[in-house]
Specification:
It is a single chain. By secondary structure, this protein is an all-alpha fold. The protein folds into two domains: about 100 residues, Orthogonal Bundle (Fumarate Reductase Iron-sulfur Protein, Chain B, domain 2), CATH 1.10.1060.10; about 80 residues, no CATH class.
């Protein structure tokens, strides 16, 4: 009875989640051996093992996938990809799940998306990350004035050890601007 209900639910979800189809194609030949789970250094912190996540993807269980924190904890170490007996691009599939979460602006992943946007904005402007600007952009994007207070002790420790500077970076032309424009043009074509 449980299996029939899950199959019915998965069929309904597959029809509504067209964006999972490319990922399902990437891992279609998964034999559920568990090598990915055994290889994953972050598996201990995940609510579903990588093998369970791939099964959910194959079944089209979009809600369960995006309520999980499994793909968000993937550190892209490529251990699963290197050890997969079928040679599946598992790390790229995890990345595709992260991109869907960012594109659909899912609530539980908003902070991560804001973090990466602030990081890229700083790198684009200076050619490298400027830590003070980066964290200022990130905290401003979160729109919670109390959040920076949680990180104040760490910030003071980094300042005292000379790991970050309060001085603004030297103004110069944006050294990576042409790279960012070329990437944007490539993304528009595909």
């Amino acid at each position: 009875m449980n299996v029939a209900r899950n199959l019915k639910r998965s069929n309904e979800t597959v029809q509504t989640s067209v964006n999972l189809i490319p990922i399902q194609e990437m891992i279609r030949s998964c034999i559920q051996c568990g090598t990915c789970t055994g290889s994953c250094p972050n598996e201990f912190a995940m609510d579903h093992t990588p093998r369970q996540l791939w099964r959910m993807v194959l079944m089209g269980l979009k809600d369960e996938i995006f309520q999980s924190k499994t793909f968000a904890l993937c550190s892209a170490c490529y251990c699963c990809t290197l050890r997969c007996p079928r040679g599946l691009p598992l790390t790229e599939a995890m990345e595709a799940l992260k991109q869907i979460a960012a594109r659909e602006n899912l609530t539980q992943y908003k902070n991560s998306v804001q973090f990466y946007k602030a990081f890229i904005q700083s790198v684009r402007r200076h050619g490298r990350v400027n830590e003070m600007e980066f964290m200022t952009l990130y905290f401003a994007a979160l729109k919670n004035p109390l959040t920076p207070l949680r990180f104040a002790p760490l910030g003071m420790k980094l300042l005292s050890k000379g790991k970050v500077s309060v001085l603004p970076p030297l103004r110069r032309e944006r050294p990576l601007e042409s790279v960012f424009r070329n990437v944007a043009a490539l993304e528009e074509r595909s």
